[in-house]
Queue: 2 jobs
Job 1
Amino acid sequence: GAVVSQHPSRVICKSGTSVKIECRSLDFQATTMFWYRQFPKKSLMLMATSNEGSKATYEQGVEKDKFLINHASLTLSTLTVTSAHPEDSSFYICSALRSQGGYGYTFGSGTRLTVV
Amino acid sequence: GENVEQHPSTLSVQEGDSAVIKCTYSDSASNYFPWYKQELGKGPQLIIDIRSNVGEKKDQRIAVTLNKTAKHFSLHITETQPEDSAVYFCAASLGDTDKLIFGTGTRLQVFP
């Protein structure tokens, strides 16, 4: 149990285009999901907290207009990288908070974004 | 804000030996401390976690100890196997919020 599906696993896009990444909790409801960014051989940096039915809260230094987050249901959060540039290339990871049936965080498998 | 330091950054051990990774945190209000294993190109997988009201937790070859006074917690892996090779991250909750702050990671290599 406690599976989070993240898609796509890899995406290559052209500069200036937008990319949407989906994060789904498959067997539990998640009122709170998180989005992280990870650079090669580095740690996970929290970008934003996604709350079902309300606006996401962003960490300091993260552009909310660049990284649009939508959490429209209890099982789905999306991250859209708008007007992508090569510096947005990174590994993006979501996690979902389980508050029932055992507290904890389940992570998605990550999305490798390459902007060319 | 919360700061989580992790040591060592790399650790090489012989198969069968034990491995210990240590983390310190700064926020005394932190109450949840998970450890994750991350393989190349994949998301982190929880291997063990501990809450602030417990000093030690064990699951087969893996154990975690927490010293709240000193604000540090450690991961212990016994009888290491080559498949334990990965990057391990500690994390601490940001105060009593649901946010997690991650350590800098430890690359563990277990040689056969």
Job 2
Amino acid sequence: GNSVTQMEGPVTLSEEAFLTINCTYTATGYPSLFWYVQYPGEGLQLLLKATKADDKGSNKGFEATYRKETTSFHLEKGSVQVSDSAVYFCALSSGNTPLVFGKGTRLSVIA
Amino acid sequence: EAGVAQSPRYKIIEKRQSVAFWCNPISGHATLYWYQQILGQGPKLLIQFQNNGVVDDSQLPKDRFSAERLKGVDSTLKIQPAKLEDSAVYLCASIPAGGLAGRTGELFFGEGSRLTVL
């Protein structure tokens, strides 16, 4: 079945540091890949997505590239801010199947 | 546009008691999901509705969990009797129509209902 594996947290970074959160997946067919973010006290919201191989999703300075050869969708940001502190979830969907989420990675950015 | 509304935000009960959570999706959204998010884990789908019909309830523990969406709008998720392992955040999400989640991935989530079972 479909599954997502993402790096364990928590991740603690200083402001302006480079961020990478690894995500790999297992899926049948050609899945779409997503990163969701959950800020403290708020609901999950879509951060970015990629629907086919080699696509790059980007939003709010975050980027992730759909790599079919390595079945990966790593999240990156060149310079994190305190406001980026949140829990990040990698997710996938194949065809009309509901989203399958990873376990989440908590990011804390300190000033 | 109003978002997905859920209530209550927090509930503490003792094991073997019952609890109900309510969700009102975004107006016009035909598809509604209930997810369970246990601490330290990602959300896990419990049930998917398309209008007032169940599309997928394969992961719903039917001996204790039930859900309904009688008029195809708001939905209720019930747990009876609750167990300690049901402590989690119950998330409701909606999308405009069935099948779009696979292509757009943009589920609209409520803030969740946090359940603590003692």
